[in-house]
Design brief:
Number of helices: 2
Number of domains: 1
Order of helices and strands: HEEEEHEE
Number of strands: 6
Distance between the termini: 20 Å
Length: 97
């Protein structure tokens, strides 16, 4: 996920905020092994959902990588949710950031 390219894709041309047309769109990283997130979605103009898909019982959030990604996005983002996607029968995941 190229941060500058993502910024250009999601920023409104008439303001510094999120383009309403991308709300509800799921974005994938350009590299299959992007370290911080597996995808993201803007659920509202001020809310971003970051997805991490894993089979591990323990998963560290790459906070510096996530911070770099978030710094590249419009400053109108006020709420950030990190969502782990695991198999249905998977035990509770432990995280550390």
């Amino acid at each position: 996920m190229s941060s500058s390219y993502l910024y250009n894709q999601v920023t409104s041309t008439s303001s510094c905020g999120i383009n309403p047309a991308v709300i509800g769109s799921y974005f994938l990283p350009y590299s299959w092994n992007y370290l911080s997130v597996n995808g993201l979605l803007f659920s509202h103009k001020q809310t971003i959902l970051l997805f991490q898909i894993t089979l591990a019982h323990y998963h560290e959030i790459k906070s510096l990588k996530v911070a770099k990604l978030l710094k590249a996005l419009p400053k109108t983002i006020k709420q950030i949710s990190f969502i782990f996607v695991v198999p249905k029968d998977h035990p509770q995941i432990n995280t550390k950031s």
